[in-house]
Amino acid sequence: MTRGRFLRRSGAWLAGLALAGAAQAATAKATATLADDARAQRLVLTDARLTVNGLGWWAEEKPGLGRLPQRLKAEMPPRVWALAQAPAGVRVRLATDATTVALVAESSAASGGTPAHVTAIGHAGVDLYVDGRYLGSAAPDAKGKLVKEWVVGKTAARRELTFYLPYGRALQIGAVVVPAGATVERARDFARTKPVVYYGSSITQGIAASNPGLIYQAQLGRWTNTDFVNLGFSGNGFGEPALARAVAELDAAVFVIDYWANPPAQLYRDTLPGFIDIVRAKHPTTPIIVTGPYYNPSEELPGDAGARQIEKRAFAREFVAQRRAAGDRHIVHVDGLEMLGREQADGLVDARHANSLGFYLCAKGLEPALRAALGLPAAGR
Question: How many distinct helices (H) and strands (E) make up the chain?
């Protein structure tokens, strides 16, 4: 090869490298994320432009996302306390004219695995709703990191954004990120100033909805434009007095007592009256809704499991009737079969927990009583 030919080839090769480098740089610039943009606005949970909903003790505990206050830790069963660290029912809301938004978060227990009957998104991830409609979801990676960017609109216009946090695993929010220059303000207030407070079991907590935004309280919250606090504890809704006292600390629009799933029938009989008494002592006229067991296939099979279910269903109905006869006109009963009945058994994921369809059915079944308790008109759907 002559020296001239070598130089010509070398020059072409170097020029090719330069072009490739320029292309790579352009691609990197084009794919740079909002979360990496040093000019972007990074909103932490205590930013006045964000609203954190679903935490009954937020003013006391912020920026922590635990569902029970630290001062009650010694009074709580250890398992209840551990479960309370998952932000079930918690929402982070804002209004912005940005067309893109990002979330930076981290799961505190990435190695914990995901139970077979739930999804990674429901258990550990987030949903994003825009103006009350689902837009997308994200889950942490194998190391527990969650960094996700969404396009939320075509043009700049005011939109209400709601992030629904996971029901099964603790999540720390690093920042909600919006572009520099975007307007950010607090989301609109709910129709009622007080939240609906739910106490119960894993079903109340949200297991096993496919998405955090599909637990039954979240659906009811969107339908009625009301806030809610989720105090469901998987496998640990036993109606202990300590939990009743915690529930009674909250100034609720309505209390929904939904813990029929965990206790044996006799324990349910023993604890429900005292639980209601503790709540009633502080809230003599606040509406209370007591739900009974929804359908379980075991009711039609040999063994004691179905009989216990039927017994608890009858007791919940009889207990509320007795209280109303004794003069408490602010307590009502919703039969679980109105929430998920025998013909709706495909709303179950493991013959016990509701799937997303099941939670929709539960929400529909509870909605009339909840609307009446809130003083809202019947659903127009």
Answer: 10, 15
